[in-house]
């Protein structure tokens, strides 16, 4: 954990209501640069709502959200993105009519090339250099995510596992400071899950990126995260190292025990 004031992400006292239902109640959460934080809990615990608050899709009724030194509690999603926040979604959201490479480039094309319309008309060399750097970076991340063989294929034609990796590459290409991953291993095969794990670890080590990982695959969370936070009924039930969370009786009663029982039933004789 970083010292106070150096967190890449810090939420304090976040509360969200939907009519008479309290979706999040006094939730505080932080992540330091280079830290991977797992966020687990049963369905309906408030995990997606919390991601919506962090990313600017929804504003909290109470509490604050900070990205580094910036209070972004009332900032729009695009403003948070320009401060280095990136997010993937539980339901894959690629541009199906674009190639894999163009999907990844779309995340950095907003930066432009400088010089405005005149530079476009005159084809200033500086613009070409910036475009070439963006394309080189996109191809680097595409290879990192194991997508080199499908770089020119339309994203909409890919199976779910590869499509998830396209979405991850699009999130990574701009070298985010905070990366929110919502069920990223869902639909992935064993090799793709290993590729995902490698990408997470590279992002946190190479770019000091803070990663918040929402994931139902508890084994994946425990292997990848430095710290795990458990949400239950909209509140933080526990937080600590993976080993501490696995040994926590309250967590086992509320979530892990039920999950293990369901997995045992699924693997048992029919």
Characterize the structure shown.
The protein is of the alpha/beta class. It has 2 domains: about 1-85 and about 215-270, P-loop containing nucleotide triphosphate hydrolases (Rossmann fold); about 95-175, no CATH class. It is about 40% helix and about 20% strand. The protein has 10 helices and 10 strands. Strand 7 (about 180), helix 7 (about 190-205) and strand 8 (about 210-215) form a beta-alpha-beta unit. It is globular and about 55 Å long.
Compile the SSE list and pairings.
Elements: E1 9-18, E2 21-31, E3 36-40, H1 47-55, E4 62-67, E5 70-71, H2 77-82, E6 85-87, H3 100-105, H4 116-122, H5 125-144, H6 160-172, E7 178-182, H7 190-206, E8 210-214, H8 218-224, E9 227-232, E10 235-240, H9 242-247, H10 249-267
Parallel strand pairs: 3-8, 3-9, 6-7, 7-8
Antiparallel strand pairs: 1-2, 1-4, 4-5, 9-10
Helix pairs in contact: 5-6
């Amino acid at each position: 954990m970083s010292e106070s004031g150096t967190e890449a992400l810090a939420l304090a006292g976040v509360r969200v209501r939907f009519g008479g239902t309290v979706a999040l109640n006094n939730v505080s959460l932080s992540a330091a640069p280079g830290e991977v934080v797992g966020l687990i809990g049963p369905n309906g615990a408030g995990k997606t709502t919390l991601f919506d608050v962090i990313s600017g899709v929804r504003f909290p009724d109470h509490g604050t959200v900070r990205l580094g030194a910036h209070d972004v509690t009332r900032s729009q999603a695009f403003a948070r993105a320009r401060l280095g926040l990136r997010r993937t979604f539980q339901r894959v959201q690629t541009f199906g009519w674009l190639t894999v490479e163009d999907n990844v480039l779309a995340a950095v094309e907003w930066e432009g090339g400088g010089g405005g319309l005149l530079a476009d008309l005159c084809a200033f060399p500086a613009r070409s250099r910036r475009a070439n750097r963006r394309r080189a970076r996109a191809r680097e991340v595409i290879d990192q995510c194991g997508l080199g063989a499908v770089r020119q294929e339309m994203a909409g034609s890919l199976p779910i596992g590869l499509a998830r990796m396209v979405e991850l590459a699009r999130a990574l290409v701009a070298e985010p400071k905070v990366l929110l991953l919502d069920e990223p291993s869902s639909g992935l095969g064993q090799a793709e899950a290993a590729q995902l794990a490698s990408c997470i670890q590279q992002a946190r080590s190479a770019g000091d990126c803070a990663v918040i990982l929402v994931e139902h695959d508890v084994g994946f969370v425990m292997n990848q995260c430095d710290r795990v936070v458990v949400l239950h009924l909209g509140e933080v039930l526990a937080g600590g190292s993976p080993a501490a969370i696995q040994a926590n009786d309250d967590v086992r009663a509320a979530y892990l025990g039920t999950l293990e029982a369901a997995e045992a039933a699924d693997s048992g004789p029919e």
